[in-house]
Amino acid sequence: MFAVEAHNLVKKYKDVQALNSLNFKIEQGEMYGFIGPDGAGKTSLFRILTSLLIPNKGSATVMGHDVVKDYREIRKISGYMPGRFSLYPDLSVEENLQFFASVFKADIQENYHLIKDIYSHIEPFKKRRAGKLSGGMKQKLALSCALIHKPEILFLDEPTTGVDPVSRQEFWEMLGRLQKDGLTIVVSTPYMDEASRCDRIAMIYRGDILAEDTPEAICNMVDGELWSAAGAQGYNLLIFLRSCSECVNVYPFGQEVHFQFHGDHENMQEKVREQFPDVILREIRPSVEDVFLNLSADAAKEKEVLNG
User: Fold this and answer.
1) Of 191, 218, 245, which marks where a domain is finished?
2) Count of domains for the chain
3) Are both 95 and 161 inside the same structural domain?
4) Residues with Cβ < 8 Å from 163, sequence gap 6 or more?
5) The pLDDT of residue 263
6) How far is 134 from 139, CA to CA, in rounded Å?
7) Are residues 252 and 157 in the same domain?
8) Which of 8, 19, 98, 259 could be stapled to 58 by a disulfide with Cβ–Cβ 3.0 to 4.6 Å?
9) What pLDDT was estimated at residue 41?
10) Of the candidates 218, 248, 277, which is a domain's last residue?
């Protein structure tokens, strides 16, 4: 039995198609990530999997339970941490934990070992109102509340958005420990660098899954050589490379320009350096973000062709 299984899952909001016939399977004990930008459909998908939304078409199961028919059972066995802080800001840290434990008729003392590593960071502030906590502390409280009833599977929708880098690192280390204890974790994130933390990832864009595999395998999906160009005239360099017939999928990447190249290396480098003498050119290994940008660009072109 798979932890999560989806078949032709569709979700629409009037004229907006949020999910386009998604199909995927998640193994038990796996840390599985949905990687994509805002508006990709991640939150709609998570709300369906946690029985908070009903799909327009298709079906999905969580631990063998249908997300529509068996919604009561799914809510018992799932822990859910939405993207926005959704706890009670006027209640204290301690009161929020007690409330969520009471909803699930869970015993805090009995299940304290599940949250000890996480809750110990905020326990000194247990009398503080949740609304007064920092972003990282809110995150730890929300995770504690999602775990206190001993769920079989944990859904985390963009849990590290707006959190400082140190707290992000701590959070992923906590998830790693939870997975080692046998918990299945499904997480979504707009941060491509977090993909390496997952066993497998699905790249989602405009309601479609562009690719699904291990992070390492995903990085091998770019066809042709990938190059980086860096120089003082970044914008002009970008425009120039886009005008070269040998260069495809040219896009800004921080202070650099990344592009795929087909042809003779030496001729390409000479041609670029004639226009930009200070340019630094190097062949690079694709990152998850590079693959996503390439695949999403191809998907956008396909939709343009289909739409005329």
Assistant:
1) 218
2) 2
3) yes
4) 135, 136, 139, 171
5) 79
6) 9
7) no
8) 8
9) 95
10) 218
pLDDT tops 50 at residue 300: yes
Are residues 214 and 251 located together in one domain of the fold? Answer: no
Note whether 169 and 160 are within 8 A (CB). no
Residues 6+ apart with CB under 8 A from 54: 48, 68
Cα gap 302→266, rounded to integer Å? 32
Tell whether 94 and 144 lie within a shared domain. yes
We report the CATH number of the domain holding residue 259 as 3.30.70
Q: Is 234 found in the same domain as 168?
A: no
Residues 164 and 268 in one domain: no
Residues 113 and 232 occupy one common structural domain:
no
Q: Which tokens sit at 36?
A: 């994509």
Q: Which domain holds residue 238?
A: 225-285
Look up residue 134 and give its two tokens. Answer: 């920092």
Q: What is the pTM of this model?
A: 0.89
What pLDDT digit, counting tens, does each position of 255-289 carry? Answer: 999 998 887 888 888 989 999 999 999 999 999 99
The pLDDT tens digits of the residues spanning 11-38 come to 999 889 999 999 999 999 999 999 999 9
Same domain, 141 and 79: yes
What's the 3-state SS for the chain?
CCCEEEEEEEEEECCEEEEEEEEEEECCCCEEEEECCCCCCHHHHHHHHCCCCCCCEEEEEECCEECCCCHHHHHHHEEEECCCCCCCCCCEHHHHHHHHHHHCCCCHHHHHHHHHHHHCCCHHHCCCEHHHCCHHHHHHHHHHHHHCCCCCEEEEECCCCCCCHHHHHHHHHHHHHHHHCCCEEEEEECCHHHHHHCCEEEEEECCEEEEEECHHHHCCCCCCEEEEEECCCHHHHHHHHHHCCCEEEEEEECCEEEEEECCCHHHHHHHHHHHCCCCEEEEECCCHHHHHHHHHHHHHHHHHHHCC
Does residue 302 register a pLDDT over 90?
no
